[in-house]
Amino acid sequence: MTDIWNWLSREAVYLWYYLSIQIEQIAPYWLIGIIIGSAVSVFGRRYIHGAFEKLGKRKMGVLGVIPASLLGIASPLCMYGTIPIAASFSEKGVKDDYLAAFMMSSVLLNPQLMMYSAALGQTAMLIRFISCFLCGCVAGVLVRVFYHDKGFFNFKGFQEGKSRDTDPNILLRFLKNIWRNIKATGPMFLLGILLTALYQIHVPSDAAANLFGGKNSGFGVLMAATIGVPLYMCGGGTIPLLQQWLLDGMSMGSATAFMITGPATKLTNLGAMKIVLGAKRFILYLAFVMLFALVSGLAVDLLI
Fold first, then answer.
1. Is 171 inside a domain boundary?
2. What is the chain's pLDDT, residue by residue, as a tens digit (304 residues)?
3. Residue 217 lies in a domain
4. In total, how many domains does the chain have?
5. What is the distance between the alpha carbons of residues 123 and 196, in angstroms, rounded to a whole number?
6. Residues in Cβ contact with 132 at an 8 Å cutoff, skipping those fewer than 6 apart
7. Single pTM value for the model
8. Radius of gyration of the chain from Cα atoms?
């Protein structure tokens, strides 16, 4: 009994030590991300979506996927919020290639997650932005090429929902948005911190290097892209774990692949995409995400 008690005591001490370190390192980025994300949602969302609606009326050809992808990243909405907005854009005449670029990049990244990713370092944050932007652009180009004369999305039944940021006092509106943001992402943030602390205690430090390191780049990127499907948590909950993996030797290419497949195949996002795409195009979506993640990861490892 004494041995069990001593083991539990050591576990508690180690766990508290690693939890405190993780919170100290990660929490500031999470809080800054929440503040910036809420600010964009309250003060900038209508301007972002207004700019995208105007983009749909301009004749930019295939080059229009570039600003469409950038506006998708700037949009603060999650996938279930993006689809009704996209449905309203479609009704107003925005073409499916622009919608594909906007929605794809919006799934992968938003201002809040961008700031949270700064915890991984400037290089990782920049690579995440570029890869997500390019993923949106490529998705838009592919839809334009292969579905130019037929519709790619089916938004039947979707209507733009009412914004919850309706308080007449703009400061209270902002504070309420921050609180909703904390409630939505806080549990995943804490879970990510806990999993990372447990990983640091029980997993050898060379495990990430052996599995995701540069010595076996192709296999590491493939593994990272694959585990990104079941392991990803919303709200940037995997940022603490990614940070530790990178410190332990994970290649930047493997991290890139994980950061693409994770949000793109999150369960709630898959459910939403299945509704608007149908079975055949949904399979194409999954294949595109996996292939783009693999190519991006290999390219990053080759260049860095």
1. yes
2. 666 766 667 777 767 777 788 788 888 888 988 899 889 888 888 898 889 888 888 888 899 999 999 999 998 876 666 777 888 888 888 899 999 999 999 989 999 899 999 999 999 999 999 999 999 999 999 999 999 878 888 877 665 556 666 777 888 889 998 998 888 788 888 888 888 888 777 777 677 777 777 656 677 888 888 877 766 666 567 888 888 888 888 899 999 999 999 888 877 777 778 888 888 999 999 999 999 999 999 999 998 8
3. yes
4. 1
5. 21
6. 73, 105, 108, 109, 259, 260
7. 0.88
8. 20
